[in-house]
Amino acid sequence: MPLKKIIKDFKELEYEVNKDFYIGLKDGQEPHILFIGCSDSRVNAEALFRAKAGELFQIRNIANIVPRKEIADTNYSVVSAIEYAVNVLNVKSIIVCGHSNCGGCSAIIHPEKSKDSLPYTGEWIKQSLAVSEHVNRKYPDMSEDEKLVMVEKLNAIQQLDNLMTYDFVRRKFESGELNLQAFYYDIGAGDITVYDYKGTLPDPECGCEFHLENDECVN
Ligand SMILES: [Zn+2]
Predict the structure, then answer these.
(1) pLDDT single digits (tens) 121-168
(2) How remote is the CA of residue 31 from the centroid of ligand 1, in Å?
């Protein structure tokens, strides 16, 4: 559809029909959720939450990655949005949403495929290579498809630990002012699995904490 028509249709079919709602938004926002999702066009956050404009503060990037503090010190894009959401907007929840058939997670499993053709992507997904290495060690007999699903889930969960490297996130989590959750969105099935962070990372397989550094299960 031509861009001019999209803009005209928004004004006539969306804005004019819901004019009072949009006028109500003009002076500020009060979202309660920071949604950190993959850039994938199929991950439609407003549809998942049945949310309207003003309800979701969002960060989108390849494979829904939150750089750990030591990396963010040279890359402010993601952390500045987290900082604003937590310290200024006072969001109540941060949700990191992974999804099925994720090209970013596929690149995490096979970094050699994107190293030359997508050098920036290759650098970006390096942050999650430990997730893929963990899955290879812990589940050596998984098929490629099963491995991709596991990396998609654990990569989303791992970002909760990455969030906790920031003092301003940790303080609000520990005082009970902030919830941290990972979602796994199965696009074809329309199902969302929720993993709650309770001070340790949940393991989607056994229910105990997710061990990235130490593969031993406490169960
Ligand atoms: Zn993705």
Answers:
(1) 999 999 999 999 999 998 999 999 999 999 999 999 999 999 999 999
(2) 24
Contact status, residue 36 vs residue 87, Cβ threshold 8 Å:
no
Residue 26's Cβ-count burial label (10 Å; 0-12, 13-18, 19+) is exposed
In total, the chain counts a number of residues equal to: 219
Going from the N-terminus, what domains does the chain have, and what CATH number goes with each?
Answer: 31-196 (3.40.1050.10)
Query: Is-contact 183 102, C-beta < 8 A?
Result: no
Q: Terminus-to-terminus CA distance in the chain, angstroms?
A: 55
Residue 218 has pLDDT above 70, yes or no: no
Distance (angstroms) between ligand 1 centre and the Cα of 110 equals 14
CA of 8 to the centre of ligand 1 (A): 31
Encoded amino acid at 72, one letter: A
Distances in whole angstroms, Cα of residue 178 to Cα of each of 8, 80, 165, 175, 203 = 40, 17, 15, 8, 21
